[in-house]
Amino acid sequence: MIILAIAGRELRSIFHTTVGWLVIAGFLLMTGFFWATMVSFYIVQGADLLSNPNAAMQMSLTDHLLAPFFGNTAVVLLMLSPALSMRLFSEEIKQRTLELLLTAPVSTWEIILGKFLGAMGFVGAMLLGTLTVPLSLWLWASPDPGALFGGYLSLGLLAAAVISLGMLFSSLSQNQIVAVVLTFSASLALWILSWVSEDPQALVVQMSLSSHLQDLATGVVRLSDLAYFAGFVGFFLFATQQRVDSTRWR
Amino acid sequence: MDKLQRYGWTLGVAGLLGVVVAGSLWFLFKEATQSVIIAASVATALLGTWAYVDRQALAGTLASRGFRYGSGSATLVGMVGAIALFGFVLSKNHDHRWDLTQEQRFTLSEQSLQVARGLEGVELIAFFQGGSAEERRFRDLSEGLRLANPSLQVRVVDPFRDAALARQFAVTSAYGTVVLKRGEASQRLESDFSEDAVVAALIRLQSDEKHRVCWSTGHGEFDIADDYTPGGYGTVGAKLGGLNYAVTPYRLLQGALGDHCDAVVVMGPQEELLPVEEEQLAVFLAQGGRVLVGLEPGDAPGFSSALARYGVVVGDDLVLDADIAARAAGLDDPTALLLDQRNRAPHPILEAFRGDLLLQLTRSVSFLDGTPGMAGSEIVRTGPSAWAETQWREAAETDALGPDPSVDIVGDVPLMVVAEVTDGGALGVGEQHAPDGAAPAAEVPAPLEGLTAPLDLSDRSAAVPADFSPVAGGRLVVIGDAGFASNRFIAAGSNQDLFFNSLAWLVDEADQLGERPEVLGGDMLEMNILEEALLWLVSLFLVPGLAAIMALVILVRRRFQ
Predict the structure, then answer these.
(1) Which residue of A has its CA nearest to B161?
(2) In this structure, which of A149, A159, B98, B533 has its CB flanked by the most CB atoms within 10 Å?
(3) Which residues does chain B have within 8 Å of residue A198's beta carbon, measured at their own beta carbons?
């Protein structure tokens, strides 16, 4: 309950700022542009192939519209998520309110999870705005609900991973800029790590964020992908908890 | 010494950097090369020097409360990291995949698994650029095939990394190449690496013979080479070409079917077959040949009636269905028949797949028990709400028609017949078999160059070769719809399975009786210009605009507070 109260407070604090809404507007503008452009291109492609039923059969909403859309949205999310996590602890450290928070009758875990859920709630609100995607598809075609679910799940897991990583960096520095730069650099490095090796089973590829999102975006959920994200988020939240807790004895 | 103590920490930093460099080199080269050993030695020496120089400060730090708490905390973090890593490795080793897609497009079809199980001594060598989407999909596919048959050898090679092997197999395609080998035989894929294409190549590789399919032409039949128009059969033609079938357009007039064909397909003739051609088919069937016939309502009435000699009664009707469930499924047209498993009798052709069939513009086809020399059965029927409308030509609108039990077959209308020749001699080959009513007034075409056709094209006995020896074992499949596997309908339900299983049953290819992967794609997005403009408006202005307005409201409210 306390966790939810903290999450609600975090969420309200974001929605009560102009920046919060501008971030949502920017995110929706970018994803909306991607979507509208891709749909227009898909329609033109379909019209070109209309006279050739054999070639038209290659047209797939999942492969040619949904998967690329979720891929582009993931990159936008990768850039925006560090901005969401940067202030979670840096601000508290700078304003010296973290000590106050820690003296309140709440555990460090409740603070960590509350802030994490608050940030995830904001991401949820951003993704909610992209619901025009499935809605517009259902109006004019029959998209695969499994692929849509997989796509949104991949975005949620990516956001969770980047925010948990960002929370650790935010707890390490009172400077939000330092936190955002470190989070973005680390996330980007983890994203492009898969480019290092061409062997999909190589350790560097398995460490990469992007290699665990590819199947999800097409509607295939792998146990190993879920375990990767669960381990990733769990590890960074624990590391953040240890870092914040260290304030008590330092 | 003072200076050394003051700047001793730089030695520690340099030592740590050395450790990072040595670790990175080891990570890259995967072995302790000379450079790794040198970097590690230098780093150790630097760290040792720093520890000696800063020993007092280090001892103080090690004894501090912060270090004790901090090291405990770091150990805990390390342990949690190790647990997370262990969980991931465990899940990787016992990975499970949930295919959430509606069409189960990442799950191998039953037919693919069946083909994989029957493979022996097959090796797949795939050349894909590492990390490409094609490579990932092929790995998924081969993983599924290997699960079905662990003896299958699969190698995925990056042509850029193993250029020598790529050169050996003459890999030039930018999309990738898959070479399938079995002993000396090999198959090659260079653009399509779908489940369908790989399985077809495996079938070709495994099969020692190619089935010769003669596609009847010259009577307005569906065109096997037309992959462009909705009414063509080009998709089927391409798929058959990818399997172990050699399809040849064939004029029945040419005769000698037994010499050139293992199976004959007569799909949707609009004009009558010549008496000699009908007899060529009879000779073929009586000598153990296999024939697949598809007939559209109203077309080739003489040929349709002539099938009665095999016990196949093709109705001069149009099957209509008032099924409410089908209407609810979006089939507004009563000539469209949605047939599920309840509409099918047990037969190898149909038992191998579970999907629905979609037939449109269909006529009834039934089997007359007791026909001499033939044994057969009706294997596909409509539901009770359908009827075979005999007055369909008179009505302008099908909605105005209704079942009339006195002339129409009402309910459970038979649509497909399979029959086997039990005595070829009983088919009356060479005798005159004028159908009831007028005999077909077929025009006698000019003799074709190089044909062995008899000169008198109306003389049925002329079609009978001198060495004619009737046997049992001929097979005949007749369907009251010829367009069910055309380019337009091949992707509908399990229509492709009905066609390919019928042909597989005819040529005795038990391995190919199955449920194929769905023909995917064909997802069209049809919008008019206004709807597209609306989508742009909503995506680009309305939705982001609402968030921007909220930002403005908060800004204004704060200014005035």
Answers:
(1) A198
(2) A159
(3) 129-131, 158, 160-161
Q: pLDDT tens for residues A159-169?
A: 999 999 999 99
215-234 in A: which are within 8 Å (CB) of B? 215, 218-224, 226-228, 230-232, 234
Partner residue opposite A198 with nearest CB, options B70, B161, B552: B161
ipTM of the complex: 0.88
For residues B305 and B437, give the distance between their C-alpha atoms in angstroms, rounded to a whole number: 9
Average pLDDT over residues A228-250: 89
Query: For residue B351, which of B311, B320, B380, B384 has the smallest C-alpha distance?
Result: B380
* Section A99-116 average pLDDT: 87
d(Cα A208, Cα B373) in Å, to the nearest integer?
69
Of B246, B283, B251, B286, nearest to B266 by C-alpha is: B251
Residue B447 has pLDDT above 50, yes or no: no
DSSP assignment letter at A25 = H
What pLDDT, in 10s, does the model give residues B133-162?
677 778 888 888 888 888 899 888 888 878
Chain A residues 94-133 within an 8 A CB cutoff of chain B: 129, 132
Categorize the per-residue pLDDT at B310 as very low, low, confident or very high, splitting at 50, 70 and 90.
Answer: very high
Question: DSSP letter string over B507-535?
Answer: TT-GGG-S-PPP----------HHHHHHH
List the one residue out of A92, A116, A111 whose CA is nearest residue A172.
A92
Of B96, B131, B551, the CB nearest to A18: B551
Q: How far apart are the first and last CA of chain B?
A: 64
The structural domains of chain A, with segments of one domain joined by +, span 2-249
For A169, B404, B427, B477, the CA distances from B472, given in Å and listed in that order, are: 82, 40, 11, 16
Which residue in B103, B519, B538 is closest to A57 by CB distance? B519
Chain A environment of B536 (Cβ under 8 Å): 36, 40
Distance CA B87, CA A226 (A): 10
Poorest-confidence range of A191-205, B204-218, B279-293, B381-395? A191-205
- Identity (one letter) of the amino acid at A205? V
